[in-house]
Specification:
Shape: elongated
Strand content: 15-25%
Number of strands: 17
Bound molecules: ligand H79
Radius of gyration: 25 Å
Strand order of the largest sheet: 7-6-5-4-1-10-9-8
Distance between the termini: 57 Å
Number of helices: 14
Largest sheet: 8 strands, parallel
Length: 476
């Protein structure tokens, strides 16, 4: 078909073939996972950079800053909403808020202990607020004296201590940096009570470039050069910034640490992976790389009276639910102004860790469920499906897995150290697995199904999705 005597047509055909080849190479059209590869870098570069993050699946978010001092109350009044927003919600003038620095002396802070808590929970990375919207740097910054070393009696740099502890324990340290909102700065976004012009500012570029050059970019440079290799930079709330400004926040990371990842909240979808909405879990499998940042109670920064702790069942379900839909879970703790992670958080993380030590194989490096129906939450590795049993079949002791066309080569429990085979009975479009009389795990018993090659699923288009049928969805 490409043989043609006519030289003109031949040239056109050759051009079309060349264009097609170029399109295939540039687009790297393989799986949705890689669909977002940028033209200016090869897909394998992106895959190489993302590899640790795709394996990790579970990270610790830490919100720690001056807001831990008032811990949710201002002048005796409880301030509603998330704790780290207290300055905004109570419209605290900058000179008053600055006084909190003089009271911030977290003498009980122990970096090794924090990292051990994350590690024992099975978390593989820690993302901590180097600067939140209040503008206070929790690291030693030369860009402004408004930082933990120069403005508090504590006088230590906890980020340095955390970087060293993470290196000792094999976790990745990552930094949250509020790039657009900075309530301490007249030229940044957010503080409309001290700077009334902020409310009506029309031109997003007005002043913001100055703030970027004076504070934000120098500080991003500091967090990328003072603490060794950083896993990722977690930008947040790109309110009102321009594409060009977002691009500068990307470029500085690429320049200083080319392997450092960037989340999508840098703005204009420029990051390496997508941040879901706060506490938002998608209803179905979401293709590509994404992460749900989530609270363990109802606040990110410590609030003394927020005791609405999520249960271990709920947290474990959320971890599995997120991984089964293709995401990572970034679960937050809010340490106190003394430097202590609240006991209620530590207790829950320890319980998740106990589950992870038995069942981690069904989380780390896993792909999403092959089922659209989500009757059970499932995670996958090549040739394997991990079925997560949250609702133990206490009455008939039978686990039923519908719409599975392939035959199961071997089934066993992750809770069984000997991996003894379970019976597998074919019943029409389902396989039925008789289970032990008592649930091996009180929260989630994981059944491994092994196949020759990739399992084939056959779900009728009419089969309802989990939102209609799965009892565990009620646990959201
Ligand atoms: O760092 C945590 C939050 O502080 C931050 N993202 C997570 C990871 C965050 N920034 N903004 N938001 C969350 C939501 C903002 C909600 C707002 Fe409002 C609605 C800002 C103004 C209106 C709620 C109501 C907060 C103040 C008033």
């Amino acid at each position: 078909m490409f043989v043609n005597d006519n030289a003109g047509t031949n040239g056109i055909v050759r051009l079309i073939v060349l264009l097609l080849l170029a399109a295939i190479t540039a687009g790297c059209a393989q799986t949705p996972q890689h669909a977002k590869c940028e033209q200016r870098e090869s897909c394998s570069d992106k895959d190489r950079r993302m590899a640790w993050w795709r394996e990790a699946k579970f990270g610790m978010f830490i919100h720690w800053g001056l807001y831990a001092v008032p811990q949710g109350r201002w002048k005796g009044e409880p301030i509603p909403g998330i704790g780290e927003w207290i300055m905004y919600r109570a419209e605290i003038p900058i000179p008053e808020y600055e006084q909190l620095a003089k009271q911030f002396n977290p003498v009980k802070f122990n970096a090794d202990e924090w990292v051990r808590i994350a590690k024992d929970a099975g978390m593989k990375y820690i993302t901590i607020t180097s600067k939140h919207h209040d503008g206070f740097a929790m690291f030693h910054s030369k860009a402004t004296p408004y930082n933990i070393v120069d403005a508090t009696p504590f006088g230590r740099d906890p980020m340095k201590e955390l970087a060293e502890a993470c290196r000792r324990h094999g976790l990745r340290l990552c930094f949250y940096y509020s790039h657009a909102q900075d309530w301490h700065e007249p030229d940044a976004v957010g503080n409309h009570w001290d700077f009334p012009k902020e409310k009506g500012r029309k031109d997003p570029k007005e002043g913001f470039d100055d703030y970027m050059d004076r504070k934000a970019l120098p500080q991003v440079r500091e967090i990328l050069t003072q603490y060794g290799p950083i896993g990722l930079i977690w930008y947040d709330t790109p309110f009102r910034i321009t594409k060009q400004q977002s691009e500068r926040f990307v470029e500085i990371v690429r320049e200083l640490q080319p392997d450092c990842l960037i989340n999508s909240r840098v703005g204009f979808d420029l990051g390496d992976y997508g941040s879901e909405g706060d506490n938002r879990i998608p209803d179905a499998v979401r293709p590509g790389d994404w992460e749900t940042p989530a609270t363990i109670n109802d606040t990110w920064g410590f609030k003394a009276y927020d005791r609405n702790w999520k249960s271990v069942d709920d947290l474990t379900f959320k971890l599995v639910d997120i991984v089964s839909k293709g995401g990572n879970y970034l679960l937050n703790v809010g340490p106190t102004a003394e430097g202590v992670i609240p006991k209620a958080s530590v207790d829950r993380l320890r319980a998740i860790g106990k589950w992870m030590r038995v069942n981690g194989e069904s989380i780390y490096g896993c792909g999403p469920t092959p089922f659209r129906t989500l009757i059970h939450r499932c995670t996958t590795k090549p040739g394997k499906i991990y079925v997560h049993v949250f609702e133990y079949p206490v009455v008939d002791k039978k686990l039923v897995i519908r719409y599975l066309k392939s035959d199961v080569k071997k089934a066993y429990l992750l809770a069984d150290p000997w991996r003894r085979s379970l019976d597998v009975i074919r019943e029409g479009d389902a396989v039925v697995i008789p289970m032990p009389d008592t649930a091996p795990d009180p929260v989630d018993t994981v059944v491994v199904l092994e196949f020759d090659g990739q399992p084939v699923i056959d779900e009728p288009a009419s089969a309802p999705t989990a939102s209609a049928v799965a009892p565990e969805l009620k646990r959201h």
